[in-house]
Amino acid sequence: xxxxxxxxxxxxxxxxxxxxxxxxxxxxxxxxxxxxxxxxxxxxxxxxxxxxxxxxxxxxxxxxxxxxxxxxxxxxxxxxxxxxxxxxxxxxxxxxxxxxxxxxxxxxxxxxxxxxxxxxxxxxxxxxxxxxxxxxxxxxxxxxxxxxxxxxxxxxxxxxxxxxxxxxxxxxxxxxxxxxxxxxxxxxxxxxxxxxxxxxxxxxxxxxxxxxxxxxxxxxxxxxxxxxxxxxxxxxxxxxxxxxxxxxxxxxxxxxxxxxxxxxxxxxxxxxxxxxxxxxxxxxx
Length: 285
Known about the structure:
This protein has helices at about 15-20, 40-50, 60-70, 115-125, 145-150, 160-170, 195-200, 200-215, 225-230, 235-245, 255-265; strands at about 1-10, 30-35, 55-60, 75-80, 85-90, 105-110, 135-140, 155-160, 175-180, 185-190. By secondary structure, it is α/β, with parallel strands linked by helices.
């Protein structure tokens, strides 16, 4: 058995991976795929890829593009979720903030710099025509850290995937002011350059397995109930999320990559637009 490590957030998007692991789909091909949950999200996962502490990651598109632009020796090997991510913009339920315009000067709670919660806060500020140079950030590590910080009185807003935070909104921990969807496919599969170059046959088998699962995922009987029970969501919320979410079995398109790079450059998050080869893995026949 060849051991491969993969990381991702502990959220409903990644259930196909857990199902495939539990059902022995990778093991049947001689692959011991070891999954590790990373609740801190994209910022930490990008650092783990750069440090070769993992082989693969399910990671936010914009965060991976920024990390590679900053010198991370990794490649995007495929789009995982084709549809946009709905970033909920949250404040403490006890906060005086009631609408999006109220938080223009507020501090932003982020999991870490380079994370989706960091990058999308800048995107949202630009969308609202706010001065992005005025943004102030407070690192809170993960969703639990955001709950603790905002509940303890941190005067800030926090952006996280809308359906993941919905139970916290429902029980009165957060108030959601608005949504900010990504203008591009939200999750990609990324791997270290060393892994994709040296273990291309392993990567091919891993992609074949996960793509077979995501192709049929929505057709699994009672998958909505399975997701709701596994992740603590209301059934109607999961059904709405399933209706909005589209998995992909293809590489990130050059047009989408260009779109991400152009937006990040306009926000001074990356310095230059690079050729697709700098970011995208091309399998050798």
